[in-house]
Amino acid sequence: VTWMPFQLKPDVPLGGIDRRSYLEGKFGGAAGVQQFYDRVSEVGREVGIFFNFERIERQPNTLDAHCLVAWAQAMSPAAASNLVEKLFRGYFVEGVDIGDRQELARLAAAAGLDAYRAAAWLVAGNGREGVMVSDERARRLGIAGVPLFIFNRRVMISGAQPTSALIEAMAQAARAE
């Protein structure tokens, strides 16, 4: 697995913004937000993910989180996947502000990485340019949302898909070799 950077809202300020206000603007008010939460929560429960959206207070700028994943990935794909799992769980279940560098270093440590080195990487701004270039390349290719999976560099599938659709895309990519 290779994790590629893509920011849904790259224009969010570094300190983040109020999550509720952001979503109400995006979904046309509180009722739209609740419909979104209900739909995603239902799908999540089906696969054992219990979203805790009410704990999320800030809509973060995710540039530093993407830089941290790139740093972990340079060490090993397994380290990156473990970190991504901690980031997803931290944000969607625990309500962690993944735009906060201290929280990112803490999550890196929880993923088995060196918190001090992670924090130093972020403070130095390492990896930022590469992440921003990759993010922009994805936009030029027409990518506009997540999740998005590319199997064997041949078959792309986007959006929350049932397991059967992902398995079929993998099989199609394998047949294309």
The total count of helices amounts to 8
Helix content: 55-70%
Radius of gyration: 17 Å
Note poorly predicted spans: none
Q: Determine the N-to-C terminus distance.
A: 18 Å
Task: Please trace the helix and strand order, writing H or E for each element.
Answer: EHHEHHHHHEEH
Total DSSP E strands: 4
Question: What can be said about the biggest beta sheet?
Answer: 2 strands, antiparallel
The residue-averaged pLDDT reads 94
Q: Kindly estimate the percentage of residues that lie in beta strands according to DSSP.
A: 5-15%
Looking at the structure, what is the overall shape? globular
Classify the secondary structure makeup into a structural class. Answer: mainly alpha
Strand order of the largest sheet: 1-2
What labels would you give this structure?
single chain, 177 residues, mainly alpha, two-stranded antiparallel ribbon, 8 helices, globular
Walk me through the topology:
Elements: E1 17-18, H1 19-27, H2 30-46, E2 58-59, H3 63-75, H4 77-92, H5 101-110, H6 115-124, H7 128-140, E3 148-151, E4 155-158, H8 163-175
Antiparallel strand pairs: 1-2, 3-4
Helix pairs in contact: 1-2, 3-4, 3-7, 4-5, 5-6
